[in-house]
Automatic annotation (TrEMBL):
HAMAP family: PxpA. GO terms for molecular function: 5-oxoprolinase (ATP-hydrolyzing) activity. SUPFAM superfamilies: Glycoside hydrolase/deacetylase. Its EC number is 3.5.2.9. This is 5-oxoprolinase subunit A. It comes from Ureibacillus suwonensis. The lineage of its organism: Bacteria, Bacillati, Bacillota, Bacilli, Bacillales. PANTHER family: 5-OXOPROLINASE SUBUNIT A (PTHR30292:SF0), UNCHARACTERIZED PROTEIN YBGL-RELATED (PTHR30292). NCBIfam families: PRK05406.1-2 (NF003813), PRK05406.1-3 (NF003814), PRK05406.1-5 (NF003816). Catalyzes the cleavage of 5-oxoproline to form L-glutamate coupled to the hydrolysis of ATP to ADP and inorganic phosphate. Keywords: ATP-binding, Hydrolase, Nucleotide-binding.
Amino acid sequence: MNRVDLNCDIGEDFGRYTLANQKEILQYVSSANIACGFHAGDPSVMRETVKVALDHGVKIGAHPGLPDLLGFGRREMAITYQEAYDMVVYQIGALQAFLTIEGEKMQHVKPHGALYNMAAKDPEIAEAIAKAVYDVSPDLILFGLASSELTKAGEKIGLRTAHEVFADRTYQKDGTLTSRKQPDAMITDQNEAVQQVIRMVKEGKVKSRQGVDVLLRADTVCIHGDGEHAVDFARFIKGELLKNGIEVKAFI
């Protein structure tokens, strides 16, 4: 049987700002990436999200982003190697404190938004993130875009590295995600999204927007928790994966 981890970005409420149904999605995923206060989330949201994730038996990872609440961490910033390293260490530490109180270990680290995309292409930023994760704990798993600079950096430093693919995003022929600035960046049809995921898991291929097949490794699939129909999609994709002989299980 094929096997894949199903992960979701979560804990992205902030103060009085609430993204509906984020916690309901935990019924259908095997790993959760919890925002650590830079792009979204706050201490109370982090604490509550950790508890809910543990109640559902979901493995927990830190989701460090750029310090940009207004832009939800999706706008690139000019940062140095040291700044990238420091902000990742800081955010991992914040979430780990809440996990320690619960007697639980962190499974993984997955950068968010612009930081994730920058690390996918920039070897220096990728190396800074990988070193930050390794220095905090070499037992942590680094989630990164499949076949990107980030996964290369993680493997080079000696981390267990999960190659991530996306259910609701389109791809370019170089294996990168289509920019959200483009009208064809998102896949809104559930059936199309699921068929893309099944092919990535079973065949290791995805059709790019240029019509060319791209080879990739699918260890973990990301679904977004902030969409209008996020819970329905999570339920649907898990059901379809199981129907197609693909087990949904955490990376560990």
